[in-house]
Specification:
- The structure holds 3 protein chains of 3 kinds.
- Chain A is mainly alpha-helical.
- Chain A contains 6 helices and no strands.
- In chain A, helix 1 packs antiparallel against helix 2 and helix 2 packs antiparallel against helix 3.
- Chain B is mainly alpha-helical.
- Chain B contains 3 helices and no strands.
- The longest helix of chain B is centred in the C-terminal third of the chain and has 31 residues.
- In chain C, strands 1-2 form a two-stranded antiparallel sheet.
- The longest helix of chain C has 33 residues.
- The radius of gyration of chain C is 23 Å and the shape is globular.
- The chains are: A mainly alpha, B mainly alpha, C mainly alpha.
- Chains in contact: A-B, A-C.
- At the A-B interface, helix 1, helix 2, helix 3, helix 4 and helix 5 of A face helix 1, helix 2 and helix 3 of B.
Chain lengths: 169, 101, 430
């Protein structure tokens, strides 16, 4: 990425990701939440491109934005009940939830403050041109077993989802 | 302008994680809870890829596995939701309160 | 200024790789212009060719032989009233055509019209194209849901189920083509579009004819999947008029509907360009490494330059094509009825013939002739695919939806897997 433009695109993409994230958790209509999540996923793909990870960005767009979100939208259309939109959208223990999450946020700040010295900032070591080839070498070399286990996991998930969603087994 | 360091990306990932957790803990609609879980997984992915820039490609390979995992989990979670919806005609998390319907 | 232009034209990287955003913007504008011209041409060509296949004449009134029909259509769509249903979801209704158009147009960033004539050449070119074209499905689902009426909802659910099913077959065919790039003499495979065409040049064969018949089977799987992916006949049940009124774009009128229309034709152009780049050698001419005996041709600007005879013969094809088109227009002018009211149309068609002949003459000038080769062959191959689309529409009956899904999952997917495994095995053994 051109170093001159990096801060501008970083702030633009992270602002888009965070604002869409807020929209995901606050919209009453689940379809609006799904569309906001699509924007979050696309801006995260942009952030991956800035981190010299084009393969992960491509996989994110194809699988997440183009696959999982289609699945979500289908299910929202199947289960959307009109009385849902007239009721309140936050549950009874929302105050406790926000308190717990605030504690989590404080924990993150503590970890970052203390951990800054443990992870020194090095120079960037990844070229962009052969990223896919290098990921393939790792994926089919050292990490072959997790790769096969992941494919088995996907098979189990497909069979399980089909069986659960069928009307009659 | 301050040059963008890895810490900037970690802060964005932490903020997304916190947003996802708020979504899981405070919303009633099951579909939106599942979408907040996807937000959490994406925050973890951003963390992994940000660190992979410093330490080699292992982070990116792990991120690919996390995305695969998220797809499988979304499919199964939505399958459970459809099976439940067929019985009880609701998508409120508050009404999932009987062990056997 | 002039040496800025010539300095750029002599470079050997795309603008995106050179970080040159001015030229990238110029290329993007040129692509917009090209797509608009292509879509207008497709509107006219589709109606005329379908009509001639059905032994009727098609639009003949608006200009000579209906040539100004696209302009009339665009004017009508721009001036039509924009109706939004009362109970429709306004934000999503507004957003849906936007997503479909953005998904269709963004694909053109990585399509190479020549060795350096792409906006940018990403390392993950083909992955990017597959991903972005799957974003169009989201727009269709949003369009059907936002209309809040059951015909659009059924149409959009069927359409998106069809598109998602055939994306898998498309992806497998693409992977088998990418696999063929790794059988290079010394290099490794690549996902970048320019790299794929350069691999075809290095292996001296279009991938459609490699490991005969595997390349052809992969091209066939991709061709069927791309027709289903763009919701065109014979897979156009979700938007056929006798079935679902108009499918997911029933409630859209005027300019919004024309955005869907534009996105459909642009998606057709995009997947045809992918097919041409992956299997038919992109910008390479037929028989790319057959150069023939060296002959010396005197140029006007330089000394006599030695050139292969076959190279020279193929380099005259663009000009010959334009002369043939000019001859068609000229013959049409001569056959126009000799009535005083037809004088303007006759004059218009004659002017078109003269313009086409003029462009053909320009394409004979050696500097232009050398630079136009890549773009011409690419556009010609994409035009062949567009003609195939129209031919399918005029020939095949429509698939019923369950037959469509059965074909996608039970025929195309196993065929794609089979050709992938066969390509891998044959590539390693041979």
């Amino acid at each position: 990425m051109n170093p001159v433009a990096t801060p501008f695109f970083f702030y633009l993409l992270s602002a888009m990701a965070l604002i869409s994230g807020v929209l995901v958790i606050t919209r009453k209509n689940p379809v609006h939440s799904a569309i906001a999540l699509i924007f979050t996923l696309l801006s995260l793909a942009g952030l991956y491109l800035m981190l010299y990870a084009p393969f992960v960005a491509g996989v994110q767009i194809i699988l997440y934005a183009g696959g999982i979100m289609v699945l979500f939208l289908f299910v929202i259309m199947l289960v959307s009940v009109s009385r849902v939109e007239r009721e309140s959208q936050f549950n009874k223990q929302w105050l406790v939830g926000i308190a717990a999450t605030a504690a989590l946020g404080v924990l993150f700040i503590l970890v970052y403050a203390k951990g800054k010295s443990v992870f020194p900032e090095r120079t960037v070591q990844l070229p962009e041109q052969l990223n896919t080839q290098q990921v393939a070498v790792w994926l089919y070399g050292t990490y072959m077993l997790p790769f096969e286990v992941a494919s088995l996991l996907l098979l189990v998930a497909i069979v399980g989802a089909v069986v659960m969603a069928k009307k009659r087994i | 302008m301050v040059p963008i360091t890895t810490l900037h990306y970690l802060v964005v990932a932490a903020a997304l994680f916190v947003l996802g957790t708020i979504g899981v803990l405070t919303r009633r609609n099951v579909v939106i809870i599942l979408m907040s879980i996807e937000l959490i997984l994406n925050a973890v992915n951003l963390n992994l890829v940000a660190f992979s820039r410093l330490y080699g490609l292992h982070g990116q390979v792990f991120a690919v596995f996390v995305i695969t995992d998220a797809a499988a989990e979304a499919a199964v979670g939505l399958g459970i939701l459809i099976a439940f919806f067929r019985n009880k005609e609701t998508v409120n998390m508050d009404e999932v309160d009987l062990l056997k319907w | 200024m002039l040496d800025y232009v010539t300095g750029y034209l002599n470079s050997n990287v795309t603008p995106g790789q050179a970080g040159n955003w001015v030229w990238a913007l110029i290329y993007i504008l040129l692509i917009f212009l090209g797509i608009s011209l292509a879509v207008m041409g497709m509107v006219w060509l589709e109606r005329k060719i379908l009509a001639h296949m059905q032994i009727r004449l098609g639009p003949m009134r608006v200009g000579p032989h209906g040539l100004l029909q696209p302009i009339a259509d665009s004017l009508k769509l721009l001036l039509k009233e924009d109706i939004i249903p009362e109970s429709a979801d306004k934000i999503v209704f507004w957003l849906a055509p936007l997503m479909v158009v953005i998904a269709a147009f963004t694909v053109f960033i990585v399509i190479p019209f020549g060795p350096t004539h792409a906006v940018t050449d990403m390392n993950i070119g083909i992955l990017f194209m597959l991903g972005v074209s799957s974003l169009g499905v989201l727009g269709i689902i949003m369009a059907g849901w936002a209309s809040n009426s059951h015909y659009p909802l059924m149409g959009s659910l069927r359409s998106s189920a069809q598109m998602v099913s055939y994306e898998i077959a498309m992806g497998l065919a693409v992977v088998s083509a990418v696999l063929m790039t790794s059988f290079n003499a010394g290099g490794s495979g690549t996902l970048s579009m320019i790299g794929i065409v350069q691999a075809q040049a290095a292996q001296h064969t279009w991938f459609a004819f490699k490991f005969f018949p595997l390349g052809l089977v992969a091209l066939f799987v991709f061709a069927v999947a791309m027709v289903a992916e763009t919701n065109r006949a014979p897979f156009d049940l979700p938007e056929a008029e006798s079935e679902l009124v108009a499918g997911f774009h029933t409630e859209y009128s005027g300019f919004r509907w024309s955005l869907f229309f534009l996105a459909e034709y642009t998606a057709m152009l995009a997947v045809s360009s992918i097919a041409v780049t992956l299997w038919l050698g992109g910008w390479l001419r037929p028989f790319p490494s057959w150069h023939g005996p060296a002959i010396t041709i005197p140029n006007f600007w330089e000394h006599a330059a030695p050139l292969g005879a076959v190279d020279f013969a193929f380099s005259l094809v663009p000009a010959v094509c334009l002369f043939v088109l000019a001859a068609f227009a000229f013959v049409g002018t001569l056959r126009m009825p000799k009535h005083p009211l037809m004088k303007i149309q006759k004059g218009g068609l004659g002017a078109l013939a003269l313009v086409l002949a003029g462009i053909g003459l320009v394409l004979l000038i050696p500097p232009v002739r050398d630079r136009i080769q890549d773009i011409f062959w690419f556009v010609a191959k994409v035009a062949v695919f567009m003609y195939l689309y129209i031919w399918y529409r005029g020939t095949f009956p429509r698939y019923r939806f369950d037959q469509l899904m059965k074909l996608g999952w039970k025929v195309m997917l196993p065929m794609g897997l089979g050709v992938l495994i066969a390509t891998a095995v044959v590539g390693v053994l041979v």
